[in-house]
Amino acid sequence: NGWNGDNRFVLVDNSANEQRYITMNDHSGEQFFALNRDINEESEGVITAEVIVRATSSDNGVFVALQDINEEIIVTVTPKDGVWTVNGIDTAVSEVEINELASLNYAISITLDLDKNTASVKINNKDAGSVFVKDLNLSRLKVGTTKEGTGSIYIDYAEMWKNHPINERFVVPASCKLEKPFGWEITGDFTLRNMNSQFANEVYSLKSETKAGQTSSASTSFEAMSGKMGLEAFVLFPEITDGAKVSFTADGNAVFTFETKN
Questions:
Q1: In this prediction, what percent of the chain has a pLDDT beyond 90?
Q2: pTM of the model
Q3: Beta strand 104-113 with 91-97: parallel, antiparallel or unpaired?
Q4: In a designed cystine with 125, which of 101, 144, 156, 176 is the match (CB 3.0 to 4.6 A)?
């Protein structure tokens, strides 16, 4: 289905018995497993890779990485001293903990700027740091365990896109419920709320329950652009209520607005 596995040590369960993910369990300090997803080589622009994994790990036991066509690492996200770290030319240490025994969900978003040679990472709705990276072309997403460490990891969701200034689906685990979304400016009572879903993971949205006479707002920004562009948003408006709106702005002024009125 597009994924290639390095399963030389038979550390994977891909029987798909009542599961829609592939589990990698590595209890050896001498063996490893990896899943690779190759893409057409990218040399410029801004690439975002977003995954949800469930993991346990010792130091450097599991990882999520972006590589070039020769498997040289551009940026990797891996645990050290009980927290996730971001590694490129330099290293950033996050505050997001990972347990060696308890398996937990982690929503990891890596934004790679191939023009500026930088990578920034968000984990579970928190800033995990930014690093400089080598001047390499992107060709592969790789998730797995290492030969040196031990741990388990499975992929439950993975997606990658290029040059979208905003592509926000609020992909977070249940532990982030009622938090304010990282990277958004919030006033009032906008928070992340889960919506019922027919899939294994809950679907989260940015929700406000502002009462009459009060106001709440949520906004996110990106670098100024020119030329043709499109905006697509899925919004649930209240019934028989005025004043709910979604706006697209430039220099602080609304270009167009969808609003409930009359």
A1: 50
A2: 0.87
A3: unpaired
A4: 176
